[in-house]
Each structure stands twice: as C-alpha cells, then as structure tokens.
Design goal:
The complex is a heterodimer.
Chain A (H helix, E strand, L loop, with lengths): L1 E2 L2 E2 L6 H23 L2 H17 L11 H19 L10 H4 L6 H6 L2 H11 L2 H13 L3 H8 L3 H27 L1
Antiparallel strand pairs in A: 1-2
Helix pairs in contact in A: 1-2, 1-3, 1-7, 2-3, 3-8, 6-9, 7-9, 8-9
Chain B lengths: L11 H5 L4 H12 L6 H14 L14 H21 L4 H9 L4 E2 L3 E2 L6 E3 L3 E5 L2 E10 L4 E8 L15 E4 L5 E2 L3 E5 L2 E6 L8 E6 L14 E9 L12 E2 L5 E4 L2 E10 L4 E9 L5 E4 L7 E5 L3 E3 L17 E5 L8 E9 L8 E22 L9 E10 L2 E16 L5 E14 L4 E9 L4 E9 L2 E8 L6 E22 L10 E3 L4 E4 L2 E10 L4 E8 L6 E6 L11 E4 L4 E2 L5 E3 L12 E4 L8 E23 L7 E5 L4 E2 L9 E2 L2 E5 L2 E9 L2 E15 L2 E11 L9 E11 L5 E3 L14 E4 L9 E7 L11 E23 L6
Antiparallel strand pairs in B: 1-2, 3-5, 3-12, 4-5, 5-6, 6-10, 7-8, 7-11, 9-10, 11-12, 13-15, 14-15, 15-16, 16-21, 17-22, 18-19, 18-22, 19-37, 20-21, 22-29, 23-24, 24-25, 25-28, 26-27, 26-29, 27-28, 30-32, 31-32, 32-33, 33-38, 34-39, 35-36, 35-39, 39-51, 40-43, 41-42, 43-45, 44-45, 45-46, 46-50, ...
Classes of the chains: A mainly alpha, B mainly beta.
Amino acid sequence: MRTPFGRSTLPLDAAAFAELYQAHLAAVFNYCLFRVGDRQLAEDLAADVFERAWRARGRYRPDQASFATWVLAVARNAVVDCQRHNGRHPMVALPADLLDDAPLPDTAVEAADEQARLKAMIATLPEADQDLIALKFGAGLPNRQIGEFLGRSEGAVGVALHRVMRKLRASWEISDEVLER
Amino acid sequence: MKSLSASPYASRAEIMAEFQGDEAVLAHELLGLRQAPGAALQTRIASLAKATSPRSTATWPPWGRWRPHQRWAAGALTLALMLALALAVAGPQRVLAQVQRLLGYLPGYGFVDPDQTRVLTAPVTVERDGVSVTVTQLIAGTDKTQVTFVGEGLNELPSDPNATRVEIVLVLPNGGVLTPDETRLEHGSARLAFPPIPAEVEQVTLRIARLPLVRPGAAPENWSLALSLRPAAGDFPAAELAAPYVPEGAHSTVMGITLDVVEVVEGTEQTAVTIRMSAAAGTGIDQVMAPDPWGIRLSDDSGHAYWVQPDPGLGSGGSVVVQQVVIAQPGAPPAPAVWEQTYAFGPLSPSTGHASLRLDEIAVRLDADESFRLDLGASPHIGQHWLLDEILDVYGAALHFTGATLVEFAQLNASGQPQQYYQLKFDVAVTDAPDLALQRLNLWSAEQGLFGDGHWTPEGWEVFLAFEKLPHGRVTVSLRGAYADLRGPWVVQWDRPGEHPEQRPRSLHPQAADTHHGLTLAVAEVVASDRLTHVQLAAEGLPAGGRVTEIRPTTGLLGTVSLGLQDQWGQAIPTSQDVRWQPPGTEWAYDPLALTFEPLPPLAQSLTLVVPEVIVQFPDDGSLSVDVPPAEALTFTQHEAEYEVVTSGGDGSGPAYHPLVERSQTWPVDLQMKIAGYTVHYTQAFIEREAGNGWRRDTLVLTGAAPGPDPNGWRLAALQGARTQRPDGSVVTAAESPGGANAAGLAYGWVSPPAPGVAPVAMLRLEVNDPHTSELLSGRYELAFDAVQVAVSGPWRLGWSMVLAAP
C-alpha cells in the first residue's frame, strides 16, 4: 500500500510481519528442532526467535538480506545461546555404544528407532555440519539461500552438503551394522 | 502492503530431486524428522508478540516523524493481524465447517451454538495477600473454551515485560489438563482459549502458576480457582446473538480478482463481514495478500463510514473477528489464489437499508518469466558501467534497464564476519501500468548470481544482482516474480435484511466561535445521527500558508483541560472510535478539524465543545550546519531510550520499560537557527546507534533548551527538514523525494511541551549513514528547513443550540 507520501519505505510493515510470521514459522521451528533435537525445547526456541524478531523488526533491512536469512540468523543465535547456556551438550546424545561398535543391550536396540538414530547421528556432527543439515532439511532453504546465509556460494554449499551427506550415510551404515549384531 | 512471503523454502519434492541413490534414502529419512509446529506454539508466538508489542504512552511529538512512534502505530495493526493468524490454527476445514453451521455470533467470542454451550454459574474470586483474581467469564463451546480472568491489587507491584510465559491450565475432574491454544495477556489478567471441555464435565479448576506479566515472586503464585458450569441456553441476549446472513449478489470483479462478501453478522456491538478475494486462473496472480484493514471501507447510504475495529483488550466485550482461511485450490496449474477473512466493524446504523464495502487496492504476487542477457566481458573491473536498453514487461508495467554498474561491498555474514560481495546495480526506470503499481521484484541470475532484488526507495528503485565472486562473461538477468498493488476499486453493495425505519441525520451550521492567542475556532457544521455526532471546525487567523494539523487532547503534556463535548446538563458525550461521517459520493481524507462523538442523548438541546490546544503548521525557512565526528572518535555505551514502551494493550495500565539503545559520548556544540521568529539553540550532540546483522543506523541527536513562546504565546513544537547535503556532496530533498518530508536523510526536530517541574527541550534527529554502505558518514551536513509546527493553547469553548436542527 502507498503511504500518504507515496510508497512505503518500510517493506516490513505491519501486515507483512504477520505474513512473514506465518510463512516462516515452520522453517524456524524445524531448524531449531534439527539443531536441538527436542520438540519442547525447539518450540521454546522458536517462540524466542519470533519474540526477538518482533522486537527487532524495525531493524530488518530487506535490501540487505531476505527475511528467511534474517530470521534464521536470529534462530541460529538463539540455538547457540541455548547451547551455551546448557554447556553445549547436544540435547540428543548418541549412545556411546553406537559409535564404538560395542554390542548394544537388547533393550537399547529395541528402543532405537530410525528417527532417534538419525537425530543422534546429527547431534554428533560438527556444528557447521549440523547447521547445514538443519538449514537444508529442517528449514528447507535452497542451496542459494543457504549460501546467502552462510556467506558461501551456491556451489560451495552443494559440495559441503554432499560431503556431510556422505558422512551421515557412513555413520548410518555403521550403526546399521551395529544394530544388526 | 509489502508482501515478502513468497515462500523462499524448497518443497519436499524439490529437495528430494537433488539427491540420488543412497543419499536420496537418507534425504527422505531426514525430511521425515520434520514436524509441524503445534497450535500452542503459534498461539504462544502471537501472544508473545502481543505482550511485547511496543505502544507509546506519549502523544508527543506532534510532527508524525518520530520513527519509533510510527513503528508502534504499525505494531498495533500487526497485533490485530497476528491475532487473526493465531486463530487461523483452526485450519480451513474447521473454520469452513464452523461457518456452514452458523447459529449465532457473540461479540468477543465469535460464532456460537447456544444449545451446545455452557457458561460459568457465577464469577469466582480468590484473594490472597491483597491480590485478587476473578474469573469473570467462561464460555465452553463445542470448538473452544474461553476463560477470562482479571487480577486486581497489582498496580504497585513490579512488572516484568518478559514474564510472558503462560503457565495457566484448566484441570478436569479426571486429572486431565487443558493448555491454552490462544492467550491474550495483560498485567495480571488474561483471556485464554482452551480446547473444548468434554460435555459431561460440570466443574473444572483453573490453575495459574504465575499471573501474566508479573515478575516471579512479586505476587502470590500457584492460584487455583474452582469453576462450575451450567448450560448457557437463554443467557445470550437475542440482540447480541445475531444471526448471520448471506448478502445476495455481493461481489465485484476487477482485473481478474473477485471480491465477495461471503457473510455478514450484524450485532449490537459489532458488524462482522467475511470477505473473500479470489484470483481467476490464468491471470498470473499466484498469491493474494490480506488487505490492509484500514483500506477496507464499510459504509451505508446515510453517510456513515465504519472503521475496522481494533482489538479493544480485555476490558471490552468487542473483538476483532479472528478467522482467516487461505484456501489452496487443488487442480491444474496455475492454481487460483484465494484469501478469505472476517473483519469486525462498528455496528451499522439501525436506520439504513443498504451497506457497501470498498477496497481500493489489492496486493498480489505476480508470476513472471522475463529475462535478458548482459555480457560483462572477460575481466570486468569494479566501477565499470555498461549501457543497456532492455525493457521487461510485467503485466503492462515496464522495467526499462538503461545501465549497470559493478560495485563491491562488505557485509557481515551470518557468522558475524565481514565478507566481500559484488553487485551489479542496475539503472532502471519503472513505469507502472494505470491499474498496477509494482512494489518489489524477484531477480535471479542462473549463471553466477547469489540473489537479486528490486525495491522502491525514497531515492528511486534499487535493483541489483549480488555475486560472491567477481562476475564475468555472460550474465542472464531473470525476473521471476513481482509484488504489485492492483488498483480497483472493488465495490460491493447489498441490502440489509429486516426493517430499517428511515431516520435521516440532522445537520446544522451554528454560529459558535471562540478566539485565543489570535486563533479563532468556529463550528462550521454539526451532524447528529443515530450513530454519531459529527462536529466540523474551521480555523481563522492562521499564518500565510498555515493549517491546523492536530487538535491536542490536553493543554501541554499534562494539561488539566481535556477535549470534550457535553450537553446542557454537563453530560459528557464520548468520542467515537468506530465510525465517521462521510456522505455518499465523497472521498474521505484525514481532517484534524473533523471530530466524531457518540450519538447525542435524546434530550440534548445545547452543546458545548472544549478544545484545549491545537497544532498549526506554516512555512518558513531556516538552515543549520553540523559536523559529525569520524567513527573512530566515538565510543558507544548502552543507555535507556528516552521513549517508553508499554507491554500491554487495553487501557495502558500494563508494565512499561525503556528499551536499551547504544549511544556515543556527548560533545558540546553551539548551533543556532532562527526560524519563524524563534531562535533554536542546540548545545549538545551525540550519536544513537541501532545495529543488526549486516546493517547499522546511526542517528545524530542534537539537544538544547527549548525556545520561549513567540509574542502571540505560540510555542514552537517541531521543525520540518526540507534538504540535507551530506559531507560527500549527495543531496536529499523533500521536494524531489517521493517520501516527501519523511524521506530518509532529512532532519526532523521537535520541542517538548511544558510539563510541571521539567524544562522543555529542543531536539533534532538526523540519520548520518552512507546510504550505500551503511557506514557512519562523518563531516559537515548542511540542513535546511521549510516549515514549523507550533502549539497554540486555548481552551476554546464553543457553545450552540441543537433545537433548530431539522432532520
């Protein structure tokens, strides 16, 4: 809409924020979920992210970053703050047995469903790789925007993603073997 | 409205398409970890936003250029929309089902089936240590349970704007716990929507771990209130429980977008109108945006125009209707875009048989697939310019690319590290189509580009493609979509059901005038109807080129005289917020001299209007030079902002705080400017800094003692910047900027009004960043001003008789 003086100079106007909130909630929540592995904590973080974004919306400069990049940067800071607060312990720890090839107790084998395994493996990745996975599969950002977010080219993001997938795939196969024993 | 929400995220299918073999299996598993955010989270975010939304408690300065104030005004609008979104969690199917079996509409609650609804047997109060909590209302319907409680005795207790975590539950007799899906918080009070209570349950317990927005430990905690329910049949007055109707033939189609009035509910407190906007297939419109609520105009044929009602808070039974359905139509592409939403207005005049709803603009996202190629050569260099003559057509609007320049810039990446980027900045002339105004462009380059964007700024359109590495060779510039405002108007008219005895508004032109400080206010017209009392004032004795820009509600900051209308018995007639006078065929424009009050009492024969103070704007010239020191000479520390942020809506009694801002050290200045007979003398300066990831805004602030009143007793209130010449020679002018006096880079100044025990202060603010790099731009700024605003105090007392007013 135009202001009395012409077009609005603030692209992030009132209605736009409401639109954006709706459009980005799922991505922010899932980014947080992938980073911390716990739904309740991810909800807390997502709420915190939008509160921060709401408070700071006047500072958002659409000419300098997309809203997705901006709000996910807020989310990343919230995750880092949270992990710092929690001593940087991953919220879902991979059972040590799963890593060192030691046989798992039967009860643990029964409890380890596919998703829990995957979450646990993500939690053991380096932070940068976790971030990449969370941006790609949690938030669903295209490589081009991940590049914008991380300050890397689209191609570099593709290569990094391929590497982390290979790494994850290898862990997956190892844990498959462990579980089959 | 700007629309930024074209999803930047890849769909599941798009992500899966990037992987093959084992990686695809893993990608599938990874995508399986995704979860949908819960309804409670969505509600929580909406309530957090509400609880933290800033709202100014000060009505000063009057200039309208106090940026935080503007943001707060926008915030109020956002709240209404976010609230709407909060209830959207019900989902389209549920809402549609609800609409299909409409039985009644209860203001403040929504659609209700009285036969299936239970209410509180009586309000329940629990008091502890001087603090009381009263559950004033519980409405247990088939779709939700709405509980309202009010805390009292909290006024003197410390508040905590961050204490927004809601730990309030309803406990069922079997131990089951219901958590709220929607919360609306005020200091110590809340209105909450829980899931429905099972039909067989007759008693529930409301447990409140801590009262909302109250600091932990500051008031009694762990409240428990036993609530008994009984059937509601007969509780809802028929007048309140108005039945909805579907107006016949209420639709209008312009530019492929059809506006339908789907349903109307006319209650004694509200008129709820459900509208639907749908784009026809093949129009290229892939998204229709929610209209700006203030752009929706409901009117009747008597001359009343009705505002969309703001959220009135907990103290009132009214509420913005909160239903919103975005229906994604399955079928062959391109899928039509549909937006449906219910808006609440004030009640319609009982004596009018026709209603009309009008939308002047609708914001949409348009699909586009236009491109051209640019050859940068093998080794382009920074600063190199290419001449272009390429025209891209966007639904009749033309983008004429006449040049491109290669620039480099540094920006903080998400890790907070500066990173070098390159941009192709385009010279683009944008010509809107007669019925389409472009607002934003989505650009992309397949070969090397990082991202691209185009948007309007006060300095003109900024269109660019960004690159991580120095681009070279052929670059394809692709336009993939655009956001635009389509111009209507869309006008939908319908007949209201039932009898509407005609009662024409009375109009008269009384001889009533009063003069203070050489300024005369006179009553030009009074209109009295069954919905309002409209008083049109006229001002005489204004300076050349002068106009009244505001009628102040009090004299000075804390004046004891208030704006008001009263009858011959001294009975006050409140101002009206939800309706205005706008005779059919006239266009509405803001007029500070048009006042709207509630309808007159039946026996009102004479009226007195009291006007405490007015703000007058008139042209005059002044200039000022000010030096901004280099960034390295400045040291920034955190300070409390001068403005106050209130964390609750309603009556403004909620907790308030001063946000923290970064501010440099203060340095002395000696800057004088004469304008309109006043001498403004600034004696101190500092830089205020706001910063975020990759951007920074530095504002020079000058302060000094306020000048005294002029010989007429008129006090300087504000200064309007007209021109700024920056140290680098660049110039911003109000005349050449579509932003006018609001253009970024222009100075704006104001003078605080007198208040007991506080010396008035003159202040001036100027953004001092390089518009291209966001770096602080030090050096000399030459500022020119072309108008002032002054405050003229009354009170003016205007009295007249209504006896001669014939219908």
